[in-house]
Design goal:
Blueprint lengths: L7 H4 L2 E3 L14 H10 L2 E8 L5 E3 L20 H5 L13 H8 L5 E5 L8 H9 L6 E5 L2 H10 L4 E6 L7 H8 L3 H4 L3 E5 L7 H4 L3 E7 L2 H7 L5 E4 L13
Parallel strand pairs: 1-2, 1-9, 2-4, 4-5, 5-6, 6-7, 7-8, 8-9
Antiparallel strand pairs: 2-3
Length: 246
């Protein structure tokens, strides 16, 4: 197992899209949310995808409407167009991945989800190029198992994780992701699985580290904390382990 005992994946709870709280004017995947997570000492989970002009930005959804006052797909907009949009009615803007890395600067660990980008095939490659000069602790994860093979090629030293859950609608893709059928080939260092679909069969994960997403209440945390090695969370403040606790 490549995940060491002092890795953040085992010791530091991960703030889902930063430590956001829109009731306080702190939208998800914003610098305010990232700063809140850094102040609290949590790792940061975030999402990356391409713009129309090939910039990599931090934004979870394919569509803009839930999180901004704009419409359409992120990929159909240039970064200049996206920069004009506020996040959830605030003055916060959609961050560039390169500027985000500079902003965090290794202060806390990062868990970076590479969103499925069918329009282009080089998101993993381009993200890895930006991360080459980054000196902080980070790990990569994706739902697309073929992205994990690209991670192995372009970021061989990075810890890589397979995201999974039970999909409502059956398809070959959903079956593979639910059952981790390609893990024998991609050999992930960790699995990130939906907490609504736990417990995850130990026989399927062997010695692989297991993260649970997304924990949104103290009750949910109490229920899953013994089923997983670490949590990706919102709304609560899970305890941070220290190396002496391991």
């Amino acid at each position: 197992m490549r995940v060491q005992k002092d890795s953040f994946l085992l010791n530091v709870p991960v703030a889902h899209r930063g430590l956001h709280d829109i009731s306080k004017g702190i939208p998800e995947n914003s610098y305010k949310a990232f700063d809140e997570a850094m102040t609290a000492g949590y790792a940061i989970e975030t999402d990356i995808r391409f713009t129309a002009d090939g910039k990599i930005v931090l934004f979870h959804d394919d569509e803009l409407s839930r999180l901004t006052d704009g419409n359409g797909k992120v990929y159909d907009k240039t970064y200049r167009e996206l920069s004009a949009l506020g996040l959830k009615g605030t003055t916060e803007r959609i961050p560039l991945f390169s500027e985000f890395l500079e902003h965090v600067g290794g202060k806390v660990p990062l868990l970076i989800e590479i969103k499925d980008q069918p329009e282009r095939s080089d998101l993993v490659k381009e993200a890895a190029a930006l991360l080459k000069s980054y000196r902080g602790e980070y790990a990569l994860q994706a739902f697309n198992p073929f992205y994990l093979l690209q991670m192995k090629k372009y970021a061989p030293d990075a810890l890589r994780g397979q995201l999974g859950c039970f999909y409502g609608k059956f398809s070959l893709k959903s079956y593979i992701i639910k059952n981790m059928n390609l893990n024998f080939m991609t050999n992930p260092d960790f699995i990130s699985y939906s907490i609504s679909d736990l417990p995850f069969p130990k026989a399927r994960r062997k010695d692989t580290v297991l993260l649970g997403w997304t924990v949104r209440s103290e009750d949910a945390y109490a229920h899953v904390k013994d089923l997983v090695d670490n949590v990706i969370f919102e709304n609560i403040r899970p305890p941070i382990k220290h190396k002496t606790d391991a």
